[in-house]
Recover the amino acids of this structure.
């Protein structure tokens, strides 16, 4: 009897745990960072192009939407950095106990939010303290 | 390339509902993945749900499946641990033979590829076994407890997307068990075989494997140790 081709079993329903969530977030923030650095280049290029262009750039970057994007970029940077350090520790063979890995994961997530907020404030200050 | 959707022939369709008998108490809803390889031809419904099982105490590894979103052994997973409907699928991202029975051919071949046996060059002592210290035995004690249920490998997104080239946590844990065995004399060759961008280094330390292991083993740590040994021998 001819049989139907074997289907592939479902996998996208796999439960989101701290393990796969933090991992995919590391990938996503890595990709976002490449776009975030375009913003940085834009800002620096504007600064190099003179006072008028710089004022124009700062005005554009001061919109609420741009500020949200900047916060996102700051968070992406901090998350990628902190989780990168977490993975360096993994690569040295430490922190694999499930409880430890869970704690370090939460520390990275919360730390990235806090640090990202601080970096965002610094960026705002750097742009001349736009309120 | 990561893949996020099931192929056309693998999409899950709504199935049949079997209501609880009238007057039943303590009713739980089970949602179970079904696949009948013959139904396209026979046009009849097989009333028996097909799944592997044997020991009913978590030592044979046959009944590994995806329950409530995570891979585990059905025999030691209590329904009382699950809130709401009990959703049961075969091990993720595997070819389905029937219902909850995945095709583990590739998985077993990968296990065999790490040569999971003692390799020696020196002749064995004529009058006794190859001995090792208690401490050395303890090192391989835990990794030897793997029952090859495939819960870890099939929980790993890297394995889902690269199982044709990435060995997966189960095979790598087995490799580690032989690499650190003090009686084994093929450590160098074993590390050579693993030093490959895919076979070993597709592990991105996601740690779904350690999270899923029903025997509380830690393949992620074993893989990290192998990576470390390869890095260290280069100096």
């Amino acid at each position: 009897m001819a049989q139907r081709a074997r289907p592939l079993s479902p996998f996208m329903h796999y439960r989101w745990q701290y393990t796969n969530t933090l991992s995919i977030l590391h990938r996503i923030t890595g990709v976002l960072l490449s776009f975030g650095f375009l913003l940085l280049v834009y800002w620096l290029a504007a600064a190099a192009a003179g006072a008028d262009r710089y004022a124009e750039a700062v005005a554009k970057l001061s919109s609420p939407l741009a500020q949200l994007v900047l916060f996102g970029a700051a968070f992406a940077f901090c998350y990628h950095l902190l989780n990168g350090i977490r993975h360096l520790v993994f690569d040295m063979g430490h922190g694999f106990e499930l409880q430890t890995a869970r704690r370090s994961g939460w520390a990275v997530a919360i730390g990235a939010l806090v640090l990202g907020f601080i970096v965002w404030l610094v960026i705002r200050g750097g742009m001349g303290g736009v309120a | 390339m990561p893949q996020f959707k099931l192929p056309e022939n693998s999409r899950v369709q709504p199935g049949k509902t079997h209501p609880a008998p009238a007057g039943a108490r303590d009713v739980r809803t089970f949602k179970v993945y079904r696949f009948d390889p013959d139904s396209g031809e026979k046009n009849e419904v097989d009333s028996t749900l097909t799944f592997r099982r044997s020991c009913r105490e978590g030592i044979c590894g046959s009944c590994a499946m995806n329950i409530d979103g995570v891979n585990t052994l059905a025999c030691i997973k209590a329904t009382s641990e699950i809130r709401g409907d009990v959703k049961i699928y075969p091990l993720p991202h595997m070819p389905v033979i029937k219902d909850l029975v995945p095709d583990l051919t590739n998985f077993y071949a990968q296990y065999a590829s790490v040569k999971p046996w003692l390799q020696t060059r020196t002749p064995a002592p004529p009058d006794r076994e190859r001995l090792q210290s208690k401490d050395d035995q303890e090192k391989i004690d835990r990794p030897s407890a793997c029952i090859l249920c495939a819960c870890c490998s099939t929980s790993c997104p890297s394995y889902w997307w690269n199982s044709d080239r990435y060995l997966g946590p189960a095979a790598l844990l087995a490799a580690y068990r032989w690499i650190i065995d003090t009686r084994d004399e093929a450590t160098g060759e074993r590390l050579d075989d693993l030093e490959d961008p895919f076979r070993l280094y597709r592990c991105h330390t996601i740690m779904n494997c350690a999270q899923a292991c029903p025997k509380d083993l830690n393949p992620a740590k074993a893989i990290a140790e192998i990576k470390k040994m390869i890095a260290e021998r280069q100096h």
Q: What stands out?
A: The CA atoms of residues 180 and 209 of chain B lie 20 Å apart. Chain B has two domains: 30-102, 105-233. The beta strands of chain B are 30-32, 64-67, 70-73, 86-89, 96-98, 101-102.
